[in-house]
Design a protein that fits this description.
The protein is of the alpha+beta class. It is about 30% helix and about 20% strand. Strand 8 and strand 9 form a beta hairpin.
Length: about 240
Amino acid sequence: MKTGLLQTVATCHSSVIRRELTSRGYANTIHAAYRQLDRPKIRISQRAFSSTPFLCNWLAPKRGHSDKNRTGKPRVRTGGSTKGTTVEWGDYGIRLRDHHRRIPAKQLEIAANAIRGRLRGQRYRLYTRVCANIGVYTKGNEVRMGKGKGTFDHWAARIAVSRILFELKGDLHEQVVRDAFRLAGNKLPGLYEFVRKGDPPVMGITKMEAGKTLQEMHRPSIKLPMDSTAQRIPATTPP
């Protein structure tokens, strides 16, 4: 019946028809049909244009903690990748420089709030380059071994070495940004360094500066003499 009313309302907007249908008790159905007609038709696969950024919670994933994550370690890129080691969106950034860590979401939030508190009243934009998507599970004290990993406790982020955590962009003095990142680094575990936009990337813990190229990094650091390397090559035929 709703489909027929929708077609009737779509084809004819006569007040006589609306009065007749209202007298028969279809007033709510008519209003619902008009709301469906006036509703903009947007494809689910396409996102409507908006000048505001798409806000998402970077301190907890949307999927929840249905599957228990293993402790694991951050991925160490040995193939020569420098992804995530340079400033992309902002003008300044803070980078982890000692070794990989698993940082809880609470500490990341405290560090971000420290940056916002230092820059209160100024025009800037804070970018987060990490997200807490690893679940941490704990068990009580003096519990016997076995019986699973325990219950969910908090979210954490696996941060590899030389990874950018936060970026800042705006009309800010460099010393003010350094002080804000210093406060954030004091709230986080590990050692951090201040980087600018345009600084060379880092492969592992080696900075790609002073004329170093990716091909040179792939070569062995120690050059062996030709005699010693030739003796290692197996011979297919006897001498």
